[in-house]
Design goal:
Elements lengths: L2 H26 L5 H8 L3 H7 L3 H22 L6 H14 L1 H8 L18 H13 L8 H19 L5 H16 L2
Length: about 190
């Protein structure tokens, strides 16, 4: 490995550490300062500014990185034996990146006007999964699709929140899955 490759690897790790720190800090307090993010990333403020010239540059980079991470994790979800199994996988992968989920979705107006943010709700795939689960009998007929989707996202958000407080992520994910399955049953 050349010195240049080592340096590029170190720069990529530092950049990722800053993005991860920004997600963790801004998931809790979007008004938090860049200094708080630098401290969480264990870098100096000047190092942070070498990567991101200002707050908006960091917001945009985190938005793009979070959307890419979400897409990558969603691509990892395989069509399960049942629609409910697939919904469970989606729930678990969302909890896995809880800080990113909270950063992206805690404020519905946070990214209004940002050219990197698509305003559509993107629920077509979720609607199809819920409808398939209903046809398979794992979601009660009388539950509206919009209700099932809202419960899914509420549990995802709640699991992401509590996993940052006092529960390990895998436990929060298990509880979210159990709650979703039970609330959707006949």
């Amino acid at each position: 490995m050349t010195t240049e490759q080592i340096e590029r690897g170190a720069r990529a790790r530092t950049r990722q550490a800053v993005l991860d720190a920004a997600a963790a800090v801004w998931a809790r307090d979007f008004s938090a300062s860049l200094s708080a993010i630098a401290e969480r990333a264990e870098v100096s403020r000047s190092t942070l500014h070498r990567y991101f010239t200002d707050r908006q540059a960091l917001v945009d980079a985190l938005l793009l990185d979070s959307l890419a991470l979400l897409a990558t994790l969603e691509d990892r979800v395989t069509a399960g034996a049942s629609a409910m199994d697939t919904l469970e996988q989606h729930l678990r992968t969302g909890v896995e990146i809880g800080d990113r989920v909270i950063f992206l979705f805690s404020d519905p107006h946070r990214f209004t006007g940002n050219p990197h943010w698509a305003e559509d709700d993107g629920d077509d795939g979720m609607r199809a999964l819920v409808d398939r689960a209903r046809a398979e009998g794992t979601i009660a007929e009388e539950l509206p699709t919009s209700w099932a989707i809202a419960v899914f996202y509420s549990l995802l958000y709640t699991a992401a929140e509590v996993s940052n407080q006092d529960l390990p992520r895998h436990v929060a994910a298990d509880l979210a899955v159990q709650s979703f399955r039970r609330s959707m049953a006949h």
